[in-house]
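Two folds, back to back.
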Amino acid sequence: MKLRPLTRASRRRADVKNAVVAYAAWRSECAAVRAAYGKWGRAAASNACLAFVAYRVALDREERAADAYARLLPRVQRRPELDVARQLLQLPGTVGE
């Protein structure tokens, strides 16, 4: 089987797809941070330390997801013919719904 080299269009589609997936992952981690913060705020004094640790872990995960998304954006933004904003708005749970 002979593999075809990636065309410019297929690279563009892959870049956009990866950016959209990274955006969705980041938004998911944002929701996890909000949930962990709420649990920490409602935790009994005996569980507050553990709840704070869970909150910090959620913050770290959100930061890693944000960094991954930020690293992908320049590749997509260099391609003005691709409307990333429109594609991001099509994701469930985003502002455009």
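---
second:
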Amino acid sequence: MLCRQSTEIMKAKGAVRALFMSCAFLLWSIPAWGEPSSLVAHAQKSHTEATVMSIHFLTPQAGWAAGSKGTILKTTDGGQTWRKLSSGTTALLTGLFFADRRTGWVAGAGGTLRRTTDGGETWQAKPLEIQYPLYHVSFVSPSIGWVVGGGGTILHTTDGGDHWVEQRSGTNAALYSAYFFDERQGTIVGALGTVLTTEDGGATWLPRDTQGAVTLFDVYFADQINGWAVGNAGALFQTTDGGVRWIDRSLPCGRTCIKLVDLLKVRFTTPQLGWIIGERGMLYKTFDGGVTWNEEKPLAASSLFGLSFPDTNHGWASGENGTIVHIQTGQ
């Protein structure tokens, strides 16, 4: 991989170690023998060596993936076959979202934002007046969505992406992920322990205290009040009040710990069943709403950046060297 591409991927991953952490933490727990895992994981052939930064499935059959060198992939058979699409760009693509089988978005380096209205067969650029990298895109309806990125960037659309308006974040920190319940209530996380919340659709964003300078890569809510954020060096934070207060749930490096790993994506398929992926293909799973997290067998030898569950029985993870793994939960 070219040095420039490698540098961009490291930036997208946000692997900047916090300089002011008083001690190192890692998510770790002894595997819970009382909850035998019925998880089955199968590597799928992506036919690419690109780093697959993001993956999104609408159904257990229909999915898309995006990554380095402008790579966009599509499957209509649950990943048994992946087909490469023409994105019209060579930029590193780090964010991917489909509202339905036809309408989707990708975001990436240098302010890249592109839209498809034919299921990914063709992509149209949406010129923006920013050059910051864009890391995450999501919509709560066909017309209302947000994009977040470097330099505290928050962009908002109310017309399906024809026009984008910058919202005032109050920070210059890189913003890596966002979760929106509806048109008004949302949470954004990023570098330097940044957590922002809104209850008015982003007209105002309020900073929330995490009491640390860790980089937070992802945020997800299991329900309206219970949410999780994950980040570098095993950072794990929980909220039980909709994002107002965040509690550090990272655990000390345990007996299986060799090196502190970055936790890169978190998802919940039920209020009790949650998943975390990250560096070196690691996978953690909770059966009890995050009271305990159990270390599973690694999904891959390489780092994983993307995670998507279209239902409670099927999930997909993606990462370095074209890695795409199908997860069958057995739930």
